[in-house]
Every structure is written in C-alpha cells, then in structure tokens.
Amino acid sequence: MIAMTHAGYIAAGWGGAAVLIGAYAAWVLRRGRALSRQVPPEERRWS
Amino acid sequence: MWRDAALVAGRDLRVELRSRVTTNQVAPFSLLVLVLFAFALDPDRQLLERLASGLYWTAVLFAALLAISRSAAIDETDGVRDALRLSGLDPAGVFVGKAAAVAVVLLALELLLGVGVVVLYGVELAGAGLVVVAGLAATVAVAATGTLYGALVSGLRVRETLLPLLLLPVLAPVLIGATRAFEAALAGVPADGWPWCGLLAGLAVLYAVAGALAYGTLLEGS
Amino acid sequence: MTSPTSTTVTGAPGADGHAADTPRAVAGRGAPGHTGSRASRVLGILALGSIALLVLYGLVWSPADAEMADSVRLMYIHVPAASFMYAGCFITTIASAMWLRRRTPGWDALAGASAEVALVFTAITLGTGSLWGRPTWGTYWTWDARLTSTALLATLLVGYLALRRLDVDPTARSTRAAVLGLLLVPNVIIVNRSVEWWRSLHQRSTLVKLDPTIEGQMLVALMVGFLAVGLVFTWLLVHRFRVAWLEYQSERLDLDLALAERRAEAGHHTDVEAPA
Asked: What ranges in chain C are assigned the alpha helix state H?
C-alpha cells in the first residue's frame, strides 16, 4: 500500500481475518466433500 | 409442585449428609482456596483485606461447581433419571427441589468461608443487612443456574470438565454483582450496593423460572 | 473438529454384506459430491466481488480518519464482524427454539452451524479489535466493557459447541444443545449489560469516544464492509448448515449400519430362524 500509518496493524488485521475465513471455508468445503461420499444423493436435496 | 420440591430437596440433602462428601472434601477444599489466595498474593500488605469480597466469591464459585456437580451426579446412577421421569413428580418441582438443596449446601459453605475470610483475612464485618440479602440472592442465583446447567451435563462422561466451561461465563454477572455489593457493604456505603443486590435478585428469579420451565424438556429428552 | 462417529465407517468392507439394509450408496451419479449448489455458487461469486470492492474502498479509496488516522481501516472489518457475530447467536437461539417446537433435524443443524460461524466472527472481532486498540489505546487488551463481554461471548459459544461435539445419543444431545442455545441470547444480553454496568463505575470518560461520526467515503467503506461480511457470513452459514445436515445423515446411517450388523450377528448365531 501507499504510505499508511499503522500499516502493520492493518495488514495483520485484514490478513488475519482473510486467513481465518479462508481456512474455515476450506475446512467446511473439504468436510462437505468427505461427508457427501457417505450420504446417498436423495439426502442431499440442494444439489 | 412445592410438595414435590420438598421431597426432592429432602432426598438430595439426605444423600449429601450420608455421603459426607461436602463436609469431608468440599468444605476443606474451599478453605484451602482461601489459603492459596494468601500464598498467591501478599498477606502482609492488607491486600487480602481489600480484595476479600472478590476472593470470597471466587472461592464460593469454585465450591459451588463441586456442589452442583455432586447434585447432578445423584441423578446419574441406576436409572434415577428414568425413575424421576416416570414418578409423576412435577419437573418444575424436581428442579426447585434440587436447586433448594444446592442452595442449602451453598449457604453452609458460604458461612464457613465467611468465618474463614474474617479470621484469615482480617475482614471487619459491616453492613450486615446488605451482606445477608446480597448473599441470599446470589446463592439462589448460583443454585438455580447451576441446577439448570447441571442437568445439561448430567450423565455425560465429561460432566466434571464441561460444567465449569458452560457455567462460569454465565455466572460472571453474579460474581460481579455479589462482589460489588459486598465491597459496598464492607466499605460502609451500603447505598452503592443495593442496586447490585437488585441485579442479583433479578438473575435469581430469571434463572429459577428458566430452569423450572426447561427441566421437563431435559428430563424427557435424555 | 471432527465428529468421531461419522468419519470412521466410510464404506467399510463389512458394509457390503448389508447393502440392502442400509441405503449407503456411493456418491456419484447425478448428485455432486460437495455442499455447493447453483444458489451458493452465485452467493460465493457475489461475496468474492464484494470483498474486492471492500479492499478497494477500505484500503485505497477511503481517506484516513482525522483522529484514528489509518487504523480506522480496521473498523471496516471489525464493526460488521461484530454485528454478524451477534446475528449468528440470534439465529442459534431462534433455531433452538424452533427445534424445541418442531423437533426436526434441520433446526438443530442450523443452530449448530450458526454458532460455529458466529465463533469465527467472534475471533475476527476480537483480533481486529485488539489490533485497533494497540495503536489507539496503547494496549492490545483493556478491560473495556465491550472487549470483556465479547470475550465472555466467545466462551459461551465455545461451551455450546463443546456440548454439541460430544459423542452421545443424538436425541439427548440435540435436546441439551437446544436448551443451551435457547439461553444463548439471554445470557449474552445479561453478560453485556452487567459488564457494561461494572466498567462504567470505574472509567467513564476515557473510552467513550469509540464511535466518532463516520461520513462520506468512510461511511461508504463501512457499508461495503457490512455487505461483504454479510455475504461471507451467509455463504459460510449455507455451507456449514449443509455439512451439519450431512453429519446428521451420516450419523443416522452409521446407527442403521451398526443395528444391521448386530442383527446379522444375532442371526448368525441362531441360524435356525431367519433374520427379521
């Protein structure tokens, strides 16, 4: 970014939030894929 | 409902009296906590006397966790839950009875801890009216909340560890209110303490009603 | 964070013999093996677009604040995250109440999913709050009323999720979780009010100027923040809800499987009678 006060705190805050959301989303998607294999399609009505 | 409550309270207190766990283990433990506070802090600089209200209620909460866990354990053995469900007792009555028994045990522990604080920390008693009313309100609040959350974890293998995690955040307002009220009483300004007493009474009523309403569902559903 | 029962028995060889008893079909034909749908994909694309917009508005186009300087940029995440943390708790309590009325597994799944997403947003709220507090107040942590009650909210959610994750009878677990979830919002309100009251006795003036009037480009950035965080929250909730639904189904099928095995075993020992 261009000259910004508290750049480190802002980077940590935005970056931390992005990493946390990304990691959680990846975990949810992976778990969804793993469980989908165990459950028959008629119980997955969204697809 | 009240007759059922008296029956259940009598049963819980008799079990507690016969097992002697409260007198032989919980009471010494709570006194030990008071001594540990003295080790952790500096006993010479009147620190203990200034912090006495907070330390007292923290010790009460630790002792309460044990008392509540014991109360929940009574219903775990040999299908007592099923027996309660089939007995035709009013679930609200069962809740009130169990909470009353916990409250009686807590009051005894609080008296003991009170003597401990006076003797060990050199606290001078003042504002007796506020102390008694705030103490009673906080006790009822802790007993009602604890009995409700005890039923939530009763019968689980992890009861002993899950109960503090669920219960302590919910009891934080009780700790805040009771500590402020006692501080005000001991400092000789009871007028500052009565609003906190109101908070404690409100919490006691709220959780007692919530527990009485929810207990039937908890008995049925597990 | 894995539920112990559901993941272990994945198409185990032993299951083959009882395929007729248990509808444990292998995924594939037709239905995709994931929690996405057309609606959730659209939602995801909108969320990604709004995140890009938030980065532009929050980090580039909006000016620095007169008092807080650039640290105000943390607020564009912090304030929306805090709002959706409360929204998540609210959904959990509503869903718990609905479960107690209807007893359908969907409400139970929604309550659990919402609490978990709310915990993620609580972590973001606490993290960005601390990082904002350090340059503004000079410390990462202060016993400010909001900070303290948010920390207690986090423990309430952790406790609720710990109860949900136990490996016990599903109906008993749902009942207990519903009662606990029903108490969540009242507890949050009580804790917030009493902590607020507690702190207001000690420090009245120092931290009051938390909400400087926000206007112009900064207000736009905050609104974009609400949009982006809201879309992300909804997307996460939709997917987490579907995962919770799959967990429920998988647990149910595992139970059926175990019952079938038990029955087959019994039939094996007394092979005079045909298995029921």
From this structure: 4-8, 38-55, 75-102, 105-137, 145-164, 170-182, 184-202, 217-269
Say how far apart CA B17 and CA B9 lie, in whole Å: 12
- Its pTM stands at 0.86
Q: Is the pLDDT of residue C25 over 80?
A: no
Give the separation between CA C8 and CA C27, rounded to whole angstroms.
17
Are C180 and B166 a contacting pair at CB < 8 A? yes
Q: Higher confidence at residue B77 or residue B207?
A: B207
Instruction: Find the closest chain C residue to B149 by CA distance.
Output: C180
The pLDDT value recorded for residue C207 is: 43
Per-residue confidence band for C24, with pLDDT thresholds at 50, 70 and 90: very low
The first and second tokens of residue B179, run together, are 């500590």
Is 50 exceeded by the pLDDT of residue C204? no
Q: What is the C-alpha to C-alpha distance for residues C1 and C167, in angstroms, rounded to an integer? A: 12
Whether there are 3 or more C-beta pairs closer than 8 Å between A and C is: yes
Do residue C120 and residue A27 have CB atoms under 8 angstroms apart?
A: no
Distance from CA of A26 to the nearest CA of C (A): 10
Task: Give the chains touching C; criterion: ≥3 Cβ pairs < 8 Å.
Answer: A, B
Nearest to A33 by CA among B36, B214, C250, C59: C250
Name every residue whose Cβ is closer than 8 Å to that of residue A10 and which is 6 or more positions away in sequence: A4, C59, C70, C71, C73, C74, C131
Q: Is A22 on the interface with C (CB under 8 A)?
A: no
C-alpha dist (Å) from residue B64 to A21, B32, B150, B177, B191? 39, 14, 11, 16, 28
Number of domains chain B contains? 1
Residues of A in contact with C30 (CB under 8 A): 41, 47
Sequence-ordered strand ranges (E) for chain B: none
| Residues on chain A touching C2 (C-beta within 8 angstroms) | 31
pLDDT of residue C202: 54
Residue B75 CA to residue B31 CA, distance in Å, equals 28
Q: Which domain holds residue B41?
A: 2-220
Best B57, B156, B183 residue to mutate vs chain C (most C CBs within 10 Å): B156
Residue partners of A11: CB distance under 8 A and separation at least 6: none
Spatial CA neighbour of C124 closest among C8, C250, C232, C244: C232
Give dist(CA C166, CA C161) in Å, integer: 9
Identify the three-state secondary structure at position C237.
Answer: helix
- ipTM entry: 0.90
pLDDT tens, C54-64?
888 888 787 77
Q: Which residues pair with C69 in a beta bridge?
A: C65
Q: Cβ atoms within 10 A of the Cβ of B16, count?
A: 22
